[in-house]
Amino acid sequence: MMSSITPPQRHQPTGRFIVIGLSAALAAAMLLPGLTLAAGRKSANVSTSATVLVPVSVSTALSLSSGAVKTQGSNPNGVVVVPASYPAQANPQPNFPTTTPVNGANAAPPNAAQVNITGSPGQVFTLRFQGWTQLSGEPGSTASAAANTYYVPGGSPTNAPGGVLNAQGRATVYIGSTITVARNNPGTTVVLRPTFTVTYN
Amino acid sequence: MNWRSTSAVLAVSAALVGGSAHAAAGDCTISITPGSNAPNLDKIVKGTSGSTTFTLPTTGSVSQSPASGTAGAAILLHPGSVTGYPLHVTVNAGSNCKGNNIPIGLLILPGAGPQFTGNRFYVHPTAGFANMSDLTVTTGTFNMSFSSSSANATATFNLGMDVSLTAASGAGAGTWTTKVTAQ
Q1: From CA B114, how far away is CA A183, in angstroms rounded?
Q2: What is the span of the domain harbouring residue B30?
Q3: Pick from B31, B84, B165: CB nearest A48
Q4: Distance (Å) from the C-alpha of residue B131 to the closest C-alpha of chain A?
């Protein structure tokens, strides 16, 4: 039936045209509830942010060493002061108040402990020192945590252990201290490993 | 019928369409206001295994599971520095969605950077709800009823949520979007 409809002339509307127009109006009316529901769905958004950091990784590349030393005179102990920046920087030099560095074939200079840290680039960190553990040398030797010094390349030796990870997420911290070397007549080299935690600020 | 009758039918249709536009103007509206400053969890050290979930409650401070310090768990570095929570949501009934059983949709949309996910929400009604009990919403949708049946009734609730971060996520600046819908 619909296919047989002949389009009406503009000035000669027919009953069939009226039926088509009425159907369109009813269809539009039936669609209204659906249109209203779709239009009625309202929403609001809020954005939350956070900075996600990679876990810090630390390793001790070098332990603190007194170097090869002999205790002077009849002292039961000798002392070696190892600056945090030595030997990364030539000065200040280690100090040997009551010890004498071994010369010759057995000579070995002191060195500060070296801690390598990796994490998120640009983040500030703090190293919390916990203690020294003797690895080798005359038993009973110690280092004073209270005398620790810290050095981050590019900065100055400081008593405040911390720094900033570089653009590659890396940092190096050197730790020096005052080592009390127990007497050993031929001489001894005391090596102490630092124990510490590193956290982001 | 004649041409004048046809014009009358079209006029009726136009009136109905106009009515639809008028109804849309009276629909529910939603607004979200952060609790204080912009929502920000500050710094999170991601875990080394599994997934860590941070709970942003409707009251109190942020917590996490597994707890900070548990092997493999992420660490919320400064829980006291979290800002913007709880979110404050206001629903206005307009003239169309007043009454009972109004579906409220809650959704977390991942944003840029490390991917935060979540589908658990905490709703703490603060005004205008027929039932003022706290809700835990895990389906992403709950039905609310206004305490008033009048047009433009307003109900408000505080919104908290759980968001999770896996060890496999990336690092850097991350965002997510909390979306609230009403119908």
Answers
A1: 56
A2: 2-182
A3: B84
A4: 22
